[in-house]
């Protein structure tokens, strides 16, 4: 068993998926860190219009995986879907370096993301034998990879964009996507063999369906996460705008680049994940493990507290010290780690054999809907006081927390049914 272990005592294939996703997320968050600023400063868009474009783009990036997951399961297989999707995404990022191609480039990235995104994490469970206890922590380890890329992206792409020109930042995002593809191709020998062929074709003799109770549970969790995303996705939108105008970014006679603050969240994910995993493992050993729905509800409530902090700062008038913004990201990240990787893991574990990529894609459908909500909510930034606006975000996260808490009994029931099967 030890020969099959890599970082955090997990299979080497998880490291390959981890690094591939790290660079894909570098490209996505590198472009996203610049997007609102590019539209408002370079393209001279009004804030409301830029918010709608931002929300629509992020929504489409998480809607296309529904089709991409079906295509991967039924036609291409996960390996070919990742290679094709990653290549299309890289092309889209390089297209962003040409101003006239702005909208076609966004559409290209969204299409490529549809093939790429669900096919990568849906390979995680295939790395483990049934009953392997390591799978419970695998999605948190994988989530660190998401955030290493997200941490590096604003520092590299954001700095290049702000200091040397927006198109340099977009080009760096394209280079990151190419790096992720190269790592994935290099690490094929460590990845599941079943990823090479369509899963539906491989199980054609056995009808594949999602049990009704599981379907209803995933739908309800997805709706709750949609509400949560309406608040959470403001980090790259209205929170970024507040960091530009409502925060004193001065430090030792210089201004901290506004895009650097977007690196705080992924940096904190990297720092906080190991101790959280240790704490959760110890609770599990004592028989006091928090069930997924309750853990997600706790996370949404913590994010609500983060927005209450910002609401108080924005309502006080004047500029807040940048350390308060840093504290906001600390609280937000603790909540995020409770809800987002937990939800992704729950969707993947409840997926029937042969529908792995499709079920994981349904998780991203909730992100799609939440991004649309976030884009619509973001238009209120210019129409109401900033303190009141952040109170609305705190309210959205609180509603999501209550919904997820109420779903705990249903989640327990579905888990028992899955264990019986």
UniProtKB/TrEMBL annotation:
GO aspect biological process, one term: oligopeptide transport
TM stretches of this protein: 12-31, 51-72, 79-96, 102-120, 141-161, 167-187, 213-232, 260-280, 296-316, 322-348, 360-381, 387-407
Membrane topology according to the record: Multi-pass membrane protein
Keyword Methyltransferase: no
Source taxon at top rank: Bacteria
Gene3D superfamilies reported for this sequence: MFS general substrate transporter like domains
Alphabetized UniProt keyword annotations: Cell membrane, Membrane, Peptide transport, Protein transport, Transmembrane, Transmembrane helix, Transport
Localization annotation: Cell membrane; Membrane
An MF annotation (GO) of this entry: peptide transmembrane transporter activity
Keyword Transport in record: yes
CDD domains referenced in this protein's UniProt entry, alphabetically: MFS_DtpA_like
Family listed: Belongs to the major facilitator superfamily. Proton-dependent oligopeptide transporter (POT/PTR) (TC 2.A.17) family.
NCBIfam families per UniProt: yjdL_sub1_fam (TIGR00924)
Protein name: POT family proton-dependent oligopeptide transporter
């Amino acid at each position: 068993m030890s020969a099959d272990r890599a970082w955090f005592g997990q299979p080497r294939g998880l490291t390959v998926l981890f690094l591939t996703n790290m660079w894909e997320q570098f490209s996505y968050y590198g472009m996203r860190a610049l997007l609102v600023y590019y539209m408002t400063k370079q393209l001279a868009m009004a804030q409301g219009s830029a918010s709608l474009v931002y929300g629509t783009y992020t929504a489409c990036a998480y809607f296309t995986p529904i089709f991409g997951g079906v295509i991967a399961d039924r036609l291409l297989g996960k390996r070919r879907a990742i290679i094709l999707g990653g290549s299309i995404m890289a092309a889209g990022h390089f297209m962003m370096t040409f101003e006239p191609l702005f909208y076609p480039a966004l559409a290209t990235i969204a299409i490529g993301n549809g093939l790429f995104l669900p096919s990568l994490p849906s390979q995680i469970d295939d790395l483990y034998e049934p009953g392997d206890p390591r799978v419970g922590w695998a999605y948190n380890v994988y989530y660190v990879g998401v955030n290493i890329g997200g941490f590096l992206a604003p520092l590299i792409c954001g700095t290049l964009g702000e200091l040397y020109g927006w198109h340099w930042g977009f080009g760096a995002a394209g280079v990151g996507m190419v790096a992720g593809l190269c790592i994935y191709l290099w690490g094929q020998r460590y990845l599941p063999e079943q990823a090479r062929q369509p899963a539906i074709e491989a199980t054609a003799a056995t009808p594949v369906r999602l049990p009704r109770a599981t379907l209803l549970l995933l739908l309800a969790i997805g709706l709750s996460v949609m509400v949560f995303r309406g608040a959470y996705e403001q980090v790259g939108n209205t929170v970024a705008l507040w960091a530009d105008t409502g925060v004193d970014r001065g430090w030792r006679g210089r201004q901290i680049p506004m895009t650097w603050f977007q690196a705080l969240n992924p940096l904190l994910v990297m720092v906080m994940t190991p101790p959280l995993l240790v704490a959760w493992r110890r609770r599990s050993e004592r028989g006091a493990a928090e069930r997924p729905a309750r853990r997600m509800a706790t996370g949404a409530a913590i994010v609500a507290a983060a927005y209450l902090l910002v609401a108080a700062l924005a309502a006080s008038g004047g500029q807040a010290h940048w350390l308060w913004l840093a504290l906001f990201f600390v609280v937000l990240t603790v909540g995020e780690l409770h809800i987002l990787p937990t939800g992704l893991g729950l969707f993947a574990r409840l997926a029937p054999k042969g529908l792995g990529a499709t079920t994981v894609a349904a998780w991203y459908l909730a992100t799609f809907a939440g991004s649309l909500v976030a884009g619509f909510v973001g238009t209120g930034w210019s129409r109401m006081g900033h303190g009141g606006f952040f109170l609305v975000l705190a309210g959205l996260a609180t509603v999501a927390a209550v919904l997820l808490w109420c779903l705990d009994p249903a989640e327990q029931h579905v888990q028992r049914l899955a264990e019986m099967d």
